[in-house]
């Protein structure tokens, strides 16, 4: 009678693909492959993840379909987003949806400011102060693109200070849409009448006053008056 041989169960193909997708997502979210970077080649992924070529291929295609990766023939596969919601929001963004973006920002950022005033740490306060300084410097530079980026970084810092992971993910998903609406509002030049001071928002969070912080966050995201 032949000796018994211990065998290890092999997960079904669909499960292997899902596990590989999860591993790829984890590396992207962890910053190993930042947005704009090229991911390793298929053979390298096979070796690194310990799965077959077809499994890697299906996982990469799934993430490309979700808008996280982009397959460029003759060049490789690149990370284009860390969030599967972001490409969906970007595809839906049109001029007649700008008001909707502002309404969604208001829903997220007012609560983020309220939570930030309650939960901010010393590190958060330092990050907020630095972000506000950078935003002011970007405005003085007169460069619209620099200001849009610095403004987005300040709002991201406020959301981060709320210490709510799901809220941060939702806010990140509208990042492109948010920057587009700000850029559209500013136009080609930074003019004084379009300047919106955010120092009082940061002061409210520093003071630990949730009500004041919510009021300040809502003030610059007020819906336009009815026509």
* Name of the CATH superfamily of the largest domain: GntR ligand-binding domain-like
CATH class of the largest domain: Mainly Alpha
Annotation field: number of helices: 11
Biggest sheet record: 2 strands, antiparallel
Briefly note the structural class of the backbone: mainly alpha
What would you say the CATH architecture of the largest domain is?
Answer: Up-down Bundle
If you consult CATH, what is the topology of the largest domain?
Four Helix Bundle (Hemerythrin (Met), subunit A)
The percent range for strand residues is: under 5%
Overall number of structural domains: 2
**Which percent range fits the helix content?**
55-70%
Element pattern in H and E: HHHEEHHHHHHHH
The stretches of 5 or more residues where confidence is low (pLDDT under 50) are: 1-10
Number of strands: 2
> Which strands sit side by side, in order, in the main sheet?
1-2
Cα-to-Cα separation, first versus last residue? 88 Å
Chart the SSEs and their pairings.
Layout: H1 13-29, H2 42-49, H3 53-65, E1 69-72, E2 76-79, H4 85-92, H5 98-119, H6 122-141, H7 144-161, H8 165-173, H9 175-186, H10 199-207, H11 210-219
Antiparallel strand pairs: 1-2
Describe the structure.
This protein has helices spanning 13-29, 42-49, 53-65, 85-92, 98-119, 122-141, 144-161, 165-173, 175-186, 199-207, 210-219, and strands at 69-72, 76-79. The protein folds into two domains: 13-82, Winged helix-like DNA-binding domain superfamily/Winged helix DNA-binding domain (Arc Repressor Mutant, subunit A, Orthogonal Bundle); 86-219, GntR ligand-binding domain-like (Four Helix Bundle (Hemerythrin (Met), subunit A)), CATH 1.20.120.530. The protein has 227 residues and is mainly α.
């Amino acid at each position: 009678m032949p000796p018994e041989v211990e065998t290890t169960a092999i997960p079904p193909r669909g499960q292997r693909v899902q596990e590989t997708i999860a591993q790829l997502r984890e590396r992207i979210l962890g910053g190993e492959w930042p947005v704009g970077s090229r991911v390793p080649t298929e053979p390298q992924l096979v070796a690194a993840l310990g799965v077959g070529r077809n499994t890697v291929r299906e996982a990469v295609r799934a993430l490309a379909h979700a808008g996280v990766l982009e397959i460029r023939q003759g060049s490789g596969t690149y990370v284009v987003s860390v969030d599967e919601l972001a490409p969906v929001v970007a595809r839906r963004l049109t001029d007649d949806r700008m008001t909707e973006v502002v309404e969604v920002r208001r829903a997220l950022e007012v609560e983020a400011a309220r939570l930030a005033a309650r939960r901010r740490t010393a590190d958060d306060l330092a990050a907020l102060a630095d972000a506000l300084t950078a935003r002011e410097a970007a405005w003085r530079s007169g460069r619209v693109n620099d200001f849009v980026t610095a403004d987005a970084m300040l709002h991201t810092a406020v959301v981060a200070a709320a210490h709510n992971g799901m809220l941060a993910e939702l806010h990140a998903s509208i990042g492109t849409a948010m920057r587009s609406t700000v850029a559209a509002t500013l136009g080609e030049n930074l003019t004084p009448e379009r300047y919106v001071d955010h120092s009082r928002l940061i002061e409210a969070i520093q003071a630990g006053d949730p009500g004041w912080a919510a009021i300040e966050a809502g003030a610059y995201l007020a819906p336009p008056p009815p026509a």
